[in-house]
Amino acid sequence: MLKFFLTRIGLIIPTFFGMTLLAFVLIRLVPGDPIETLAGERGIDAARHAALLHAYGLDQPLPTQYGIYILKVLHGDLGKSIITQTPVLDEFWALFPATIELALCAMVFALLLGIPAGILAAVKRNSVLDHGVMGAALTGYSMPIFWWGLLLILLFSVLLDWTPVSGRIAVTYFIEPRTGFLLVDSLLSDEPGAFRSVLAHLILPTIVLGTNPLAVVARMTRSAMLEVMGEDYVRTARAKGLPSWRVLGVHALRNALIPVVTVIGLQTGVLFTGAILTETIFSWPGVGKWLIEAIARRDYPVLQGGMLLLGGVVMGVNVLVDVTYGWINPRIRTGSA
Amino acid sequence: MTGANLAARTAPETPGQEVWRALCQNRGALLGLGAIVLIALVALLAPWLAPYHPHLTDNTVFLSPPAWQQGGSLAHVLGTDAIGRDILSRLMHGARLSLFIGLAVVAISMVAGVAIGMLAGYVRGVFEVAVMRAMDVILTLPSLLLAIVIVAILGPGLMNAMLAVAIVCLPHYVRITRAAVIAESGKDYVMAARLSGAGHLRLMLIEILPNCAAPLIVQASLGISTAILDAAALGFLGLGAQPPSPEWGTMLADAREFVVRAWWVVTFPGLAILITVLAFNLLGDGLRDALDPKLKR
Q: CB B140 to CB A315 under 8 A?
């Protein structure tokens, strides 16, 4: 198990360095040099320009600059935002809990609906129900979620007035940040009604962000269940006279869920992609909205650091999923380690 | 029955006929194909079908509702937007852009991806390792994030957005081609061609490549829908096609602020994206079932 774990860790090292190289190169493709970008439209005189280039080490050869960049990244220094002058890492950690909270809720939503829907479709294979569920899943998979979000706002916020339009909590509440997760913080605070407000704000963004993963989970569960239900041990369980809920729920489902675990891991990247759009629509104060605003302000250190950090998170989750996968399915562990 | 007739009846099907027959048995795929043909026709004939020029503004009809709603008129069947442009005409012209984006992005990433993947699978060694690690990096980053950063650096616009989406889609083609090339290279027919003196180029392009086609065709048809969706998302974020372009995502971005007052300016462009993407996904699913009998259940 340890060897398997170490191999997986070893595999991400080149990917990590590749990512830093990409972040380093991309930012140097910006027209003009970083000092001109810093100076903005006011411009800067030649002597001061040269002095600043030297001060930031930008007059060094590119390989040296990359070496310095790597050393800084490894020490947790991702530079400062051009606009706020706050370290990128600090800004990221302040906003990341909001994104995580939203992403977790979306994933729970997708699993709670997607797994039962997939099982139902597999058990009632080729029925109207199966076609209905799979049609809905393909529609969910094809959904432009930025439009889906607008439609839900139109229906639930504007026409029915059931849910708030934007933000994480009503402005009348002040919740002291302890964990950064408002669902937890609002419960810990004494403010009555705060938790309700947080929940109400979460509903629409959760549905919007969870739609794509929901579709993928439902499709994956269905095909995994169909595969498992044809196996000999399921037939044996049926032949023993076990009730059908036990055959499906205990014997078939447990094995069918193995590929679903992988899908959950692969959805992390999809969730972050979706979070950028969802946060923009609902003014959700997370890292997605932060990055979009950084583009408008030409805040390149934020873009560079944010890309590296989100990529790092996805990489970490992938390793975690690999390890979990090896843990619940020993065939993987011994096969590839 | 004449002998010729009999021969024609018993002759084995060509691979193309076989796939077509399997596709015809899949109602979903046929529906998708039908929708794509329809959208393509609208796109091709847009200048003649559309009642107005997509950029033509009319200051007498701001935010006029669709024909069936009170206050709407048959002059603008799907209503008008905030500066009086006919939505139906813009959607029809937008179909041209979306299909062009889908096809162009897939063409760019497929040609580049097949070339890189084929070299990686054929040459192997350090080159292969370097290429595959680079693809891992692109795959690890959230796709839209990478596309956004690329566009932010190159500058917003339709061409840069397409290039960004093509780069993001590249790894899928590289991986599929490389895996297929490695699987095919060891087969006897490649060895036979090599022994009869075929050069590297002939081996790669004429012997091996056609046998890698099936997974690439499936990926391409599914890739068109991803490309349309991602390009629309970039347009929605203001990084893709720029106004007054009738690109569907850009139309949605323009319409966002009117969501409360005019449901139609938001509803129809999104519906157009959904239907087009769904059609390509239906066809892609059908093609996969038809081309890969192992997956058929």
A: yes
